[in-house]
Amino acid sequence: MHETLSWEILFVFIGGLALFLYGINVMSSALKKATGAGVRRLISRISGNPLYGLLAGAFATVIVQSSSTIIAILVGLVQARLMTYSEALAVMLGAEIGTTAMAQLVAFRLHDYALIIFATGFALSVLGKSESLRFTGEALSGFGLLFFGLKVMSEAVVPLQSYAPFLSLLRYLDNPLLGVGVGMLLTALMHSSAAFIGILVTLALQGSLTLEAGMALVLGSNVGTCITAVLASSGMKRAAKRVALAQVLFNATGIFLFLPFLQQFAELIRFFSPMAGGYGAGKLANEVPRQIANAHLLINLFMALFFLPFLSLFDRLLYWLLPDNPEESRLLPSVWYLKESALTTPFLALGYAKAEVARMGSIAGKMVRASLYSFINSGPGKDEVFPHLSVIGGIHMREEKLDFLESRISDYLIKISRSALNEHESREVFALMNIVTNLESIGDVVETFSAKLLEKKRELKSDLSNAGKNELVEIHSLVCLEIEQLVGSLKEMDPFMAGVVIHGDEEFKKLVAQAETAHLRRVFVMHEAEVTHDVHTELIDLLEQVHHYCKIIAGNIPHSDGMSQR
Asked: How far apart, in Å, are the Cα atoms of 15 and each of 9, 21, 142, 152?
C-alpha cells in the first residue's frame, strides 16, 4: 500500500516538475526573444560605475528570469573583450539579487490562477498582431505553465504529510550542513536555482519544511547554480573564467557568513515576515513559503551590498587566484606600438602607426600561409606559432586580431589627422586608413573561405588531385611572396617595393589561367577532379581575392611626389 502510494506521488510530482521546468523554459525563451538583444546591449554598455552595474544586473535578471543566462552572457562579453571582468563583477552581484524575484512570485500563491494566466498568454500569443505582443503572450503562457506545474507538485506531496519514510527523511534536513549539500547537489543537477526554489516552496506550502531547513537548502542552491557559469567558461580565456570563479566565491562566502548564525537569521526573517494563526503543519504551510522567499532575497541582497564596496579588492583576489597566462595573453588581440602620448608629435605618431600596420600585414600573411594547409595535407595540422592550436584555430585567432587592430589603428589615425599635418603626412594618414581596411578584408576572405570550403571538402569525402594540389601550391606561393613584399614595403611606406607587387600581376594571371585550363582538362577524365571541382575553383578564387587586395594595398603607398601607384 505504502509502496504504491510512493510511486503514485513520485510520478505525479515528476509530471508537475516537468511542467514547471517547461514553463520556466518557455517564459525565459520568450523573454529573451523579446528583450535578449536589449539585455545584452544594456549589460555591455555598463560603465565603470559599480552601482549602475549592480542595478543593470538585477533588472536584466528580473526580465530574463535566469541569473544563469545573465552570467553566461557576462562570460561571453568578457571573452569577446566587450567588457572587462572587473566591470562584470558588479553586474554579477545584481544578477544574484534579480534571481530572487522568482521565489517571491511563487510565494504569492499564484498557482490557484495558473490556468487563467496560461489561457490569457496563449490567446495573446495566437491573436497578437505585433511580434512583441506575441512574445509577451508566450512568456505569460510559460508563466502560467510553471505555476500549474507548481500546483500539480503541491497536490502530489499532500499525502506525504503523514508518510513516515518521508518525514524521517525531512528530519535529516534539520542538519544545516546536510541541507547545504543537498541544495548544492540538486541545483547543480537541475541547472536551475529557480526550479529548485520552486520545489522548496512546494514542500513549504504543505507544511513539510521548516524555515531553518529551507534557508540551508537556499544557501546550497546559490552555490549549485554556479555550475552553469563554470561550464560556460570552460575552454575560455582566464578573464572569462574569473567571472565564473567570482560567482562561486560570492555564493560560497554566503554559506560561511550565514550558516553559523542560521538560527538568529531565521528569527529575523520571522520578525519581518507575516505571521499566521494556528499551529503545526498548517501554520508552517501559511508562513514558511513567504519566509523562504524573503530569506532568499535578504541573503542575496546583503551579500551584494556587502561585496559592492570591496569590488576592487575582490578583483585583485580573483586575479591572484587565477592570473593571466602569458601564452594565452599572446593569443589576445592587442596593440604593440600605438602610443597616445605620441599624438602631440604627428611625425612620431605616424611612425608608430606604420609599425602597427606592418604588424597587421604580418598577421594577415600568416593567415594566408595557413589558408591552403588543410586542403593539401591530411589532418588539422598545427599553427606555425602556437602549436597547441590547429591551423584553422590559428586562422580564427588571427582574424580576431585583425578586426581589433583595424578598429584601434583607424581610431589612432583619425586622432593624428586632427593634428597640424603637412601635405606628405596627410597623404600617409589617408593611405594607411585604406591599407588597414584592405588588410582586414584579407583576413575576412581567408577565414570565411577556409571555413566554408573545408566543410564542403569534408562533406565530399574526396581529396584534391595531386596535380591540382601542385598548381594551387604554386599560385599560393606567389601570393605568400606578395604578402611578404607588401609587409616589407609597409614598414617604411616604400613605393618601389610596393611596385614589385603591382608589376607581378601579369605573372599571377598567367599562373591562374594555366591552372584553370589544366583543371578543366582533368575534370573530363578524372572522377576525383570532377567531385572536387567547386572546392578547387573556389580556392583559386580565394587566392585571386587576396592577390587583388595586395594590389590595392600596394597601390595606396604613395610616391614622394604625392601620387599613389594606382
From this structure: 10, 10, 16, 8
C-alpha 552: how far from its chain's center? 36
pTM: 0.60
pLDDT, tens digit, 9 for 90 and up, residues 533-551 = 888 888 888 889 999 998 8
Domain spans in the chain, listed from the N-terminal domain onward? 2-155+168-321, 340-556
Q: What is the pLDDT of residues 285-306, one digit of tens each?
A: 677 888 888 898 899 999 999 9
| pLDDT the model gives residue 456 | 78
Phi, psi of 477 (to 5 degrees): -65, -40
Cell of 552: 590595392
Determine contact, residues 142/27, Cβ cutoff 8 Å.
yes
Tally of residues, the chain: 566
Name residue, grid cell 523573454. 31
Note the CATH number of domain 340-556: 1.20.58.220
Residue 132's Cβ-count burial label (10 Å; 0-12, 13-18, 19+) is exposed
Residues near 105 by Cβ (< 8 Å), separated by ≥ 6? none
User: Is the distance from CB of 153 to CB of 20 less than 8 angstroms?
Assistant: yes
**Sign (positive or negative) of CA dihedral 229, 231, 232, 233:** positive
Between CA 372 and CA 324 the distance in angstroms is 33
- What does the alpha-carbon distance between residue 535 and residue 537 come to, in Å, rounded to a whole number? 6
Q: What does the pLDDT look like over 304-335, one tens digit per residue? A: 999 989 888 988 898 898 887 766 667 777 88
